[in-house]
Amino acid sequence: MAFSNIELRNFRCFEKLSLDLSPKSTFLYGKNGCGKTSILESIFVASSGRSFRTSNLESLIKEGAEGFSIRAYDDLHGSILEIKKQRKHSINIKINDSKVTASELVRAFPSFSIDSKTFFYNDNAPEYRRKHIDRGLFVASPEYAKNWFGYFRALKQRNSALKQGSISQARAYDYQLVTHGERLNDLRQSLIQDTNTVFLELIKSLLTESARAKIFSEVSVNLFPGFDDNEGLQSELLKTNTYDLRRKSTTKGPHKADIIFDSKGSLIKDIFSRGEQKLLSILWSISQNIMLGRVYNLQPILLLDDLSSELDSEMLECFLPALKHIENRFIFSNIVDLFGSKIDESNEQLKKFHVEQRP
């Protein structure tokens, strides 16, 4: 499900706000400090129960108010979401008047945020890249959650045995580790392959409108599973028993996985400019959102704040045609209007809002 309308009360700088969203792209523009990021943040809160800016939800309550509320509508399914947060109280989440957990909310109204870390996806630690694809799998596949929890439960117990110096006790958890771990690897591999198919399709379309898109056609994306896939996880664990015992930690497995982006054998972070890295991350995120719709029949919302930062005019012109290929809701912001006073026919499914000042 995805929101078609969202209403805010006493959220950040907004005392009251109602916004109708496009089924495709919604563009917010206005000066710094006018509330663009707060609107994006409210949509993320409404789809996850948490903020992408802070862990303190009370800081989202407008000054002088006792709490904030978010009400969102899904016109396709007729669903109503209500979120309330009062000072000194836990967040309250309801879908169609029934209380739900944050995990249930994430699956019902999935959203993904492209933030400053995502912009330079390839400069971040492998853990960040793992979490990025795992969040998509958590939303899309109930099987993923079962295998993820099973794997990390066995990993914790195995590591505890290694810290106690008992390799025989540690090996007692190998079966669970291998069973869940190899399935995790398969699910990750499928998600990356499916996303890559959409990514290459998107780049091919962009090439018809911008020669600068050629640099992205030479990008390859591969999963390093955290162990030798040809050998298998069981064999890798046996090989590293002595080393694991010395390190007191399991050194092979999906918890060490990474997603590698390269071009002609060189890592992206070593050869792409900051603007090229940022646009690659945006296009990959858009591709994953499209894939989740096509393969898993989901309607995830993708959020992007401050589009043109780090992008030169050439990279921006390369990006804009991608809006015609958006298949789910994409909500993004910028300081200035990128489209002039009118939206041409090719962008008829794009709504834009000028956020003028703090209400």
From TrEMBL:
InterPro entries: DNA-binding_RecF, P-loop_NTPase, RecF/RecN/SMC_N, RecF_2. GO terms for molecular function: ATP binding; single-stranded DNA binding. ATP binds at residues 30-37. Residues 4-327 form the RecF/RecN/SMC N-terminal domain. Keywords: ATP-binding, Cytoplasm, DNA damage, DNA repair, DNA replication, DNA-binding, Nucleotide-binding, SOS response. Belongs to the RecF family. The RecF protein is involved in DNA metabolism; it is required for DNA replication and normal SOS inducibility. RecF binds preferentially to single-stranded, linear DNA. It also seems to bind ATP. This is DNA replication and repair protein RecF. It comes from SAR86 cluster bacterium BACL1 MAG-120820-bin45. The gene is recF.
